[in-house]
Amino acid sequence: MTEQPVGTVTTSTTAPMVAVTDLRHSFGSGERAVHALRGVSFSIGRGELTALKGRSGSGKTTLLNLVGGLDNPTGGSIALDGTELAGLDEEARLAMRRDRIGFVFQSFGLIPVLTAAENVGVPMRLRKVPSAQREERARTLLAMVGLADHADQRPGELSGGQQQRVAIARALANEPDLIIADEPTGQLDSETGRAIMQLLRAVVRSEGVTALVATHDPTLMELADRVIELQDGRIVEAAS
C-alpha cells in the first residue's frame, strides 16, 4: 500500500470532479503575510457531498473561493473535471463559473426586486436561455425544492429557509457539475438548517452533482459522504 502524503485526502473515483494539489494562499507579503492555506491536497469524486469544517480563520472560505475560481492561489493547483484553472484566461474562468459551478451563500444573495422564479432564472439569463425555457426550468426547480406555490413571491415575502431553498434552486439553474456552498445554514434555526442540509443531500443524489460545503452544522457532517477538517490552513482530519 502506497503511503499518502500528510494532509492528502484520497478518493476511490478514478476521475475526480475536484482535484486540489499542494494548494497555498497568502494575503500580504513578508513578515506580515497571512498564510490562509498551507499545502492543502484532496480530491472529490463526482456525485459526492463533502463537508468542510473548521473554526473561523481556518481557511474554509479561502479554499471555496479558490476552488470556485473566484480567486487565484499563491501556489499549487486546482483541476475541475480535469481542467486546470490556472490554464484558463479570465473569459474561460467566467464561463466555468457560469456554466459548471453553482454557488450558495450564507446570506442567500437573492435580488430583492425579483420574484423567486426570476431569481432562479438569473443564471440562465446570463447564458441567454430563451424565456419560455428559462421560466419552465425555474418553476421545475422551485417545485424540486418544495416552493412550487411561491414562485411569484419576492424574497422579502419568504422565510429564511425558503430563501435558501430559492438560492439552491438558482445554483442548479444551469445544471452545474459542482455546487459550492459557504455556511448555507448560518442564518437559519436548527430545525430549518436540518431541512436545508437534507435538501442538499437529496439534490446531490437526484441531480448527480458534486457538492463542497463549508459548515459548522453537525447535521451536514452526518449526511456528508466525507468530512474534511481544516485547521490553520492545513487538513487535520478527513473522514468518510
From TrEMBL:
Entry protein name: ABC transporter ATP-binding protein
Note the Pfam families from the entry: ABC_tran (PF00005)
Instruction: Fetch the InterPro entries from UniProt.
Output: AAA+_ATPase (IPR003593), ABC_transporter-like_ATP-bd (IPR003439), ABC_transporter-like_CS (IPR017871), ABC_transpr_LolD-like (IPR015854), MacB-like_ATP-bd (IPR017911), P-loop_NTPase (IPR027417)
Recite the lineage of the species.
Bacteria, Bacillati, Actinomycetota, Actinomycetes, Kitasatosporales
- Is the keyword Nucleotide-binding in the record? yes
Q: Where is the ABC transporter domain?
A: 18-240
Under the heading SUPFAM superfamilies, the entry gives:
P-loop containing nucleoside triphosphate hydrolases (SSF52540)
Which keywords does this chain's UniProt record carry?
Answer: ATP-binding, Nucleotide-binding, Transport
PROSITE patterns from the xrefs?
ABC_TRANSPORTER_1, ABC_TRANSPORTER_2
In its UniProt record, a GO molecular function of this protein is: ATP binding
What PANTHER family does the annotation carry?
ABC TRANSPORTER RELATED (PTHR24220:SF685), IMPORT ATP-BINDING PROTEIN (PTHR24220)
